[in-house]
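We modelled the chain as a single entity of 624 amino acids. Its sequence is:
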Amino acid sequence: MVILSIIFLFLLVIIRMSYLQIIKGPMISELAIDLWERSIPIDGQRGNIYDRNGELIVGNKLSPSVAAINRQVSNKEETALFLAGVLNTSYEKIYDHLNKNVSIELIKPEGRKISSEQAREIVRANYPGIYVVGDTERFYPYDSYLAQVLGFTGIDNQGIAGIEYYYENFLIGKDGGLKIVTDAKGNYMHDIVGNYEYPNKGLDVYLTIDIGVQMVMERVIENAVARYSPEQMLGLAMNPKTGEIYAMASYPTFEPGNYQSYPQEIYNRNLPIWMSYEPGSTFKIITYAAGLEEGVFTLDETFNDPGFYMVDGARLKDWKKGGHGTQTFLEVIQNSCNPGFVEIGLRIGEEAFFKYVNDFGFGSRTGVDLLGESTGIVFNPEVIGPVELATSAFGQGNSVTPIQLVTAASAAVNGGILMQPYILDSVGYGDMEEIVFRNEPTVKRQVISSQTSDIIRYALENVVAKGTGRNAFIDGYRVGGKTGTAQKVGPNGTYMDGNYILSFLGIAPMNDPELVVYLAIDNPKNTIQYGGVVAAPLVKEVLQEALPLLGIEKQDNQIDREVRFWIDTPFYDVKNYIGMSKKDVSRSPFYNVEIKGDGEEIVAQIPIQGERILEGGTIVLYTN
């Protein structure tokens, strides 16, 4: 009986062992490996950021990181001394990392995002328990360009500001890990191979930005900053038909990969959507549109400007001493005549005027897909009087953001439709091969009629051809626009002497607007404080290069430029030099002629015959 009991117990043991090894074995092995495995995290790569044409503007580059399995580190003092030397940090910090009672210790921040040279040195040293894993950091091929828009990421590749933060859910990658099998004491088990869990890359984001236009704008701003030493400066370019943002720039700027070296006031302020100020005469576009829509004046109706306008006992001055005299209302906008716009505003009336102000989007956010947008500040029409209405009509009293102003001006010229500005074009995989989401233009409302918009385009083209915006005239392109000279309000609520924000809003081509460019320069030094003198030529520079980049061709039916003052530079027709001998090329007193090449015969020229050149410009001739 005893023997049978022993045999029975023996069989039970065999059955139990067989069950554990054959039936439960795989599960038990997995549980054991889970206990033994140490996973060294590897961040997933963020998606790239491209411009509208697929040009890379934010990518990733290899930047390894260091991790330690502390139980495997045999000589912590020696290891800490070595790592401190390679990572350029203190021995005490590394020694503290290696003495933590954790399964895996990431050496951060000291060992995160190290260079390839540092990584190779650590791998070659082969200290037990020290591992180098693949990691990435953001790469910015255009340095500080578009910085406030793009934003930046933290040490763990999370989006902190700008596009990086706003579209984090698209861009973020899925983390992976290097799994190492150890025994209970943390010793590496060489006979069991761990797993490598591949990190996944995030989705790629394509912006409406055209990096070519952005580079032009940034360069113009850089040159203006060097010349005028302003307190700050901003630029914005947009498609008036769709609301797509082509360029957006702020100065001072910063390097996103090194944002910690800059004050928060620089990297946290995207001026075109954040900055709020009195717009000055650029706002007259809105007053003019409202007046035309309400039918309170016509272009050929005359108005007399003595240099001021008395409203409720207040004397509101024109910018031109003595005024402009008798002029048509077309000349009122050409000359940016303040009393003329006071007259338009008073004819419209408070209720109707501020209805248009609100309908054009002032006093509320545009809805652009960027963080930090301001609402601006608009008078409450219920508590204002005739003086506030009058000053509002020519751009004083209300504060607006640049993006509000550009969006409203776009509505004035695009057929009267207020669009929602946006900067995300699409989201996808692998060089636009698979698009998973595409943004579309959003119509907010019809603000004025298309007929009124037609008249606005004609009037603004006259401003550039014959009025205060003449410095933005481009031969061959139908450019319209409006100057702005806004006196700044000081901390005590009064206007500051000699301290202005100068601006210009340029649009082209005026028969079918496809590009709006706005530049504002805050308190430029050593110059005449007029938007038409300082800002208009800067916008002209941007338009001259941006229009061809966008495939917009010249036209020959523009309103011709009127030379009215001695400061206006005249044009001259370019004659044909092709076929002439080099020795027969005569010099001109009006423009420069430059010959390139060692041949005797002229075979090509820029500009070509029939185009026009500004006085002082250069014609380049090429020989055979």
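As a brief sanity check on the tokenised model: The two ends are 120 Å apart (CA to CA). Residues 187 and 274 are 56 Å apart (CA to CA).
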